[in-house]
Design goal:
Blueprint: E1 13-20, H1 30-33, E2 35-38, E3 43-46, E4 53-54, E5 57-58, H2 59-74, H3 83-90, E6 102-107, H4 115-119, E7 133-134, E8 140-141, H5 144-150, E9 155-162, E10 173-177, H6 180-190, H7 198-201, H8 217-230, H9 262-266, H10 287-292, H11 295-301, H12 310-329, E11 343-345, H13 348-351, E12 356-364, H14 368-376, H15 378-394, E13 418-420, E14 423-424, H16 425-428
Parallel strand pairs: 1-6, 1-9, 9-12, 10-11
Antiparallel strand pairs: 2-3, 4-5, 7-8, 10-12, 13-14
């Protein structure tokens, strides 16, 4: 276990993990190269997601490159860094001197691999999978989620691109996970314990991510409610599908995994237990579900500075605002870029880390203006991300300028995540 850094030095020290999406390759067969390894069936339940690509551009390479540039900038505000250099960057964005903090930055994965490199490797996705997986000798290895939690970060910044998106998502878009209470309302609706859809349609979280137009956003919401509580999606008629997606909290090495030997109980999917496949009688109990109902998860995923989405949404929006401000300050054409609507679902990364998670779709590769920004302004995007991260920890009054998307500059109150003297919720996942 890593020692706590918070009280070791003159200035508070915060841990940040930069999480560039993907990195590996989608290869056949899925039985060897997939992700989401299910120890019940001893099979992979999903193909490895290698990310978006278009016109020779690949998401996994671009976001890794941006992450390296962010880490290079933030190194100057590490405990042994050259803070004067970092302070010179901050002066572009504020007329005041922000509170001094130190930031230790890590990456969640190694450099992306090419198709040729993947073909030469026995397991090209080792080190890139989100979930734990067996090596060729059958020994379980940590996926990226487990590695991130072992670093006990205060903040994880997940950077992604998409090939294309809905017309009303022309922007930089946060990706957030709904809180337990909202999902539980959906469970009550499925069980006919709740009448009417007002809880959904009148909520800022009601604009749910649609996997396709074959169903409405509300039906996709109900589908994800079933996956969240049971591991099983729904058919169009709301009957339970046979396509089991696994118990995701048991695919990660962390405090909230069920007790050893859970598979021998779960394989029967007994009704009126946490392992039931039927939303009508599933009982969400145990360490993971206690965690989901905790005040700390409400801080991360509910309410907050944006009015919804908790600290996750605020961190993502604030970093987006600083990216846009950086493009503006550095005289780059940010075109149609703006702070956009959030994607809302039961996304893996925002749920399965204890850290505040700023998960951002930066751009869309089919859009020419977005490609131009990615081609010409990686340094400016990285600077905005780095300054935004710093502001989340220190607080910083941004310079007043005639700019539509000025950051709020309010720091996140990390004290509310304190669990006991010298320990925080961020430390808990790796116990």
């Amino acid at each position: 276990m890593m020692p706590s850094l918070m009280n070791d030095r003159e200035f508070p020290v915060y841990r940040v993990v930069l999480d560039p999406g993907h990195g590996g390759r989608c290869k056949s067969p899925m039985s060897r190269h997939g992700d989401r390894y299910n120890t019940l069936s001893k099979t992979y339940l999903d193909n490895f997601k290698e990310g978006a690509s278009f016109a020779g551009l690949e998401e996994n390479q671009i976001v890794y490159d941006i992450s390296l540039r962010v880490r290079r900038i933030l190194k100057n505000c590490s405990p042994d860094g050259d803070y004067k250099k970092f302070a010179a960057v901050l002066k572009k964005y504020t007329d005041e001197e922000p509170d001094r903090v130190n930031i230790v930055t890590s990456l969640s994965r190694k450099k992306s691999i090419s198709d040729a490199e993947a073909d030469a490797l026995e397991d090209p996705n080792a080190g890139y999978r989100l979930f734990d997986y067996p090596d060729r000798r059958g020994i379980m290895r940590e996926g990226r989620l487990s590695k991130i939690n072992s670093l006990r970060p205060n903040l994880v910044v997940s950077l992604h691109l998409a090939t294309d998106g809905p017309s009303d998502y022309i922007a930089m878009n946060p990706v957030i996970a709904a809180p337990y209470d909202f999902l539980n309302e959906g469970l009550k609706y499925l069980r006919r314990e709740k009448k009417g859809r007002a809880f959904y349609s009148n909520n800022r979280l009601g604009d749910w991510f649609c996997e396709s137009h074959r169903r409405s956003d509300f039906e996709w919401f109900l589908n994800d409610v079933s996956v969240y509580f049971t591991g099983c999606p729904l058919e169009k008629d709301r009957s339970v599908s046979g396509k089991f997606k696994g118990y995701r909290h048991n695919m990660v090495s962390w405090k909230y995994t069920d007790n050893r030997g859970w598979e021998s109980v779960a394989r029967f999917h007994q009704e009126n237990t946490r392992y039931s496949r039927n939303y009508m009688d599933v009982v969400p109990d145990g360490r993971f579900w206690d965690r989901e109902r905790s005040k700390y998860e409400k801080y991360r995923r509910d309410g907050g500075e944006e009015g919804f989405g908790g600290d996750n949404a605020y961190a993502a929006y604030e970093i987006i605002r600083y990216m846009l401000f950086s493009l503006y300050k550095n005289r780059r054409d940010y075109g149609a870029m703006k702070t956009g609507k959030p994607y809302i679902s039961i996304w893996i990364m925002p749920v399965h880390v204890n850290a505040i998670n700023a998960y951002i779709e930066i751009a869309y590769l089919r859009r020419r203006r977005d490609r131009n920004i990615l081609a010409t302004s990686k340094n400016e995007l990285a600077e905005g991300i780095a300054v935004g991260i710093y502001s989340l920890f220190s607080g910083m009054n941004p310079r007043k300028e005639p700019f539509t998307y000025l950051p709020k500059g309010k720091k996140i109150d990390m004290r509310k995540y304190d669990v006991s003297d010298g320990r925080s919720y961020f430390d808990e996942a790796d116990d």
